[in-house]
Amino acid sequence: MTPTPDRNALLRDLSRRRLLKTVGFGAVGVAGASVLSACAGGDNAANAVPGQFTGVYDYDIDAQTRNVAVEDGALLMNSVYADLFLPAGGFYNWETHEWDYLLMENAVWEGDDLIVSLRPGLKWSDGTDLNADDLHQNFAIRVLEAPAWSIGFPQITELEKLDDLSVRARFDDPFPGIELQVIDHRLFCKSTYGDFGERAIAMVADGVRQGDDEHSEFNAEFIAFNPDDIICSGPYKFDPGQLADARITLVRNEDGYQGTEVAFDEVVIHKGDNRQASLLIQQGEVDYSTLATSAADQQAFRSVEGLRWIEHPGYDGCGLMFNYQKKPELKDVRVRHALAHLLDSDQIGQVARGDAYTRVNYYAGLVDMQAEQVFSAEELDGFATYDLDHDRATELLEEAGWTKEDGIWHLPDGEPASFEVVGVVGWGDFELTATQVEEAWNDFGIQTTASNVPADNPWGIWAAGDFEVAVRHWGNPEIPSYWGAFQMNFLVENARTGDTPGQDFDLKVDSPSQGEVDLEALVEVAKTAPTEEEQVEAVRTMAIVFNELLPRIPVWTYKYLAPALEGVRVAKFDDDHPASQNQIYMDNHVILSLIQGDLKPVE
To answer: What predicted TM-score, i.e. pTM, was given to this entire model?
Structure first.
């Protein structure tokens, strides 16, 4: 992933302040780089354990529970390694839009009923059978516990165990894709959750749903529940004697799914945040990491023998979200277009992410890869682009009634134009994006200040509308269906209520090419229309409207570069996997390759 000569020239032209932020070289950065260089070398294999695969994740052995049914806060459940000990029913291929089943044998629609069947012969790590009782109990608990706004479990109206391996789930007005969270669900063991499961089955049958009094009592007990052990169904299980602050060891679970097929006898997960992970990678202690790497890390890793990058596509990006209530001048589409033309997205992406970004070509609200699936190349050629163009920005602002006096732009009412752009403390790419927007707009004569909101709850700040311009995501990394991007772009943090105005963007818009459009209604059509053709047509309309009106500015797209070490413990990483186009944190193709036995150790 060596930068092109043009990129190097770009970096040389950056201001010293921006360049120091790019490579992370303050006093601490320089010292850290020296330590990292000293750790690098070709002796990694000397301490390698045969048949061991290693990763890294920032877990807390004491604070995190063993209640894997409540994923937030449960040990390793928010990591890619969860697939190794609690695999899902199946994984969805984001490229082909098809299912590849894991614990499940199949899932078939019969009218409004989804018939889900498990593979025969599966066992839990405590020796008990994994069967339809687990499936039935899990589904009932999820009907009660899944957020009411989510898609899948809240729409289930009936559950019935059909035989030892199958369960019927009836849905209220099912639509294509409604089954995603159901099939992708990680089953937890009836040996641990049987009491909760039986109670949930009875409550669901009686019509109890989330928020009812009966559920509230159940929920309080369920959240507080903290079992001693995690019973596993995957090819690996926890070794109680090797659960420590610094590392967790998962050992082969021969009775689990693929337990005899995986090629590694154990998986070691080192504890480490982004910085600590980088040190471990430098030392050759980690075979594969999904933690964020800075531009400085990307440079330093080049000295590690056997290290390569595995590229995972991004389905979202970083951009600017506007508060139309606090800054009504932004309601003028010409102003939004002008502000976009002031940003060098390649430069901003390079500074914020090193090589771990891609530029935005189509400004469709979808990432470019998805836009190319929905539109023809000829259609995309007609989309407006918003590359750096000061002359065009000047024309647009003057058309909008802005004037420039003594190098400062003024609004039509004569007041100086000004914006505060907020990033998030500790989110390095957001912080660097905010400071670069600040510099670009200031250089053009628009008074701009960059600051950061606390990292503990930026979502609450965004939803409350406590910002003027916020560095925020666009697109959607969690929903593979196209409508997910527009749910994020238009609906998230846009409640338009007194307490939670969010963006306060009016979703009934007038499009130059599409006429009057209700974007909120179109999101629903794209999500729930009975045919794929109707869904895609709604997506196409929203993408065109987004490109024309630019309600938020996409600046760059995520590209995930995961460092991987070959020749020490892992022989070679597979470049051609069916899930290679999946989002990195959802059905990670490296972890799936390990589960499927395709990832091999050094012989």
So the answer is: 0.84
